[in-house]
C-alpha cells in the first residue's frame, strides 16, 4: 500500500459521486440489508475500485455503497475482507483508510460471532467493550506506516466511549437487549475446538469471530472514533458442543439484523 494508491482509489470514488460521507459502516456476515434503506445510493463494486481487494466469501456481497441514511451521508461496506481469504492485514484494512480519506468522522462495525459467555443466546447483540487480537499480526506492522499515522497507536480505549454509551441508551429506549463483552478475533476459517473454546474463556473473551479487530486497530491509528456490535449466531459450549453450519449462522444473523439496523440508524441520527 502506498499513498499514491490510496489517492487513486479515493479519486475514483469521488468521481463516482462519493462526496464527503460523515459515517462509515462495515456490515458483517448476514447483515447486509441495511443498505436497502439508503436513499439515492451510488454503488461501486469492489472489482471496479482501483487497488481494492475482492470479497471471496459467498455470503459477502462486495459493494461499497454511498448515499443518505437518516439524513446523513454514509459510505457502507456490504461485504468485508478476512485473513482466511488469503489477504494480508493491510488488504483487509485498506477500505478503512479509503473511507477515512473520503472524509468519514465515525466508523460503525458489525459482525457475526460465536458466544463463549454462556449467558448469551443465539440472536443476542453484544456491544464490544474491548477486544483480544489472536490473528498473529498487526495491520500497522509494515514499512512506512509512519506516513499514515503514528506507528505506536494507543489502544487503551479502542472503542469510543461516547458512542458506546449512546448505543446503550438507544437500546434501552428501543427495548433491545444489548449485551456487552470482550470480542476475540481468530484467524479461521475453521471453527473452534472444545479445547480452544475453553482457552478463549480463560483469557477473558465473551465472543469469538474472524474479523473486526484489524479494522478497529486501523481506526485507532487514524484517530477515527469507532464502535462495534456483534450478533451472537452460535454457542461455543465446550461441554455440549454441536456442529454449526454456516447457513445457520447466516440465518440467525438475518433474524437479528433488524435490531442491529435500528441501533445503527438511531446512532447515525444522533451523531
Automatic annotation (TrEMBL):
Xref: InterPro entries: Nucleoside_phosphorylase_d, Nucleoside_phosphorylase_sf, Pur_Nuc_Pase_Ino/Guo-sp, Purine_phosphorylase
Protein name: Purine nucleoside phosphorylase
Pathway: Purine metabolism; purine nucleoside salvage
Pfam families for the chain: PNP_UDP_1 (PF01048)
Record carries keyword Zinc: no
Function field: The purine nucleoside phosphorylases catalyze the phosphorolytic breakdown of the N-glycosidic bond in the beta-(deoxy)ribonucleoside molecules, with the formation of the corresponding free purine bases and pentose-1-phosphate.
Protein EC: 2.4.2.1
PANTHER family: METHYLTHIOADENOSINE/PURINE NUCLEOSIDE PHOSPHORYLASE, PURINE NUCLEOSIDE PHOSPHORYLASE-RELATED
Protein keywords: Glycosyltransferase, Transferase
SUPFAM superfamilies: Purine and uridine phosphorylases (SSF53167)
MF GO annotations: purine-nucleoside phosphorylase activity
UniProt keyword Glycosyltransferase, yes or no: yes
Superkingdom per UniProt: Bacteria
Amino acid at each position: 500500500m502506498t499513498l499514491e494508491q490510496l489517492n487513486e482509489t479515493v479519486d475514483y470514488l469521488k468521481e463516482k459521486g462519493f462526496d464527503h460521507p460523515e459515517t462509515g459502516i462495515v456490515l458483517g456476515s448476514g447483515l447486509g440489508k441495511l443498505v436497502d434503506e439508503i436513499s439515492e445510493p451510488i454503488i461501486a463494486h469492489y472489482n471496479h475500485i482501483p487497488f481494492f481487494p475482492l470479497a471471496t466469501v459467498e455470503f459477502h456481497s462486495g459493494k461499497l455503497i454511498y448515499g443518505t441514511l437518516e439524513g446523513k451521508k454514509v459510505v457502507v461496506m456490504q461485504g468485508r475482507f478476512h485473513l482466511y481469504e488469503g489477504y494480508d492485514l493491510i488488504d483487509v484494512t485498506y477500505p478503512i483508510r479509503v473511507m477515512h480519506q473520503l472524509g468519514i468522522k465515525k466508523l460503525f462495525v458489525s459482525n457475526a460471532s460465536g458466544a463463549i459467555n454462556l449467558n448469551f443466546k443465539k440472536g443476542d447483540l453484544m456491544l464490544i467493550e474491548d477486544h483480544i487480537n489472536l490473528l498473529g499480526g498487526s495491520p500497522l506492522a509494515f514499512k512506512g506506516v509512519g506516513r499514515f499515522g503514528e506507528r505506536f497507536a494507543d489502544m487503551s480505549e479502542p472503542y469510543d466511549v461516547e458512542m458506546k454509551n449512546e448505543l446503550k441508551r438507544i437500546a434501552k429506549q428501543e427495548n433491545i437487549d444489548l449485551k456487552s463483552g470482550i470480542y476475540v478475533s481468530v484467524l479461521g476459517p475453521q471453527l473452534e475446538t472444545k479445547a480452544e473454546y475453553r482457552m478463549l474463556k480463560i483469557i477473558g473473551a465473551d465472543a469469538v469471530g474472524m474479523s473486526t479487530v484489524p479494522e478497529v486497530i486501523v481506526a485507532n491509528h487514524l484517530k477515527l472514533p469507532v464502535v462495534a456490535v456483534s450478533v451472537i449466531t452460535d454457542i461455543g459450549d465446550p461441554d455440549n458442543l454441536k456442529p454449526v453450519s454456516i447457513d445457520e449462522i447466516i440465518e440467525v444473523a438475518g433474524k437479528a439484523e433488524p435490531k442491529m439496523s435500528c441501533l445503527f440508524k438511531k446512532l447515525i441520527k444522533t451523531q
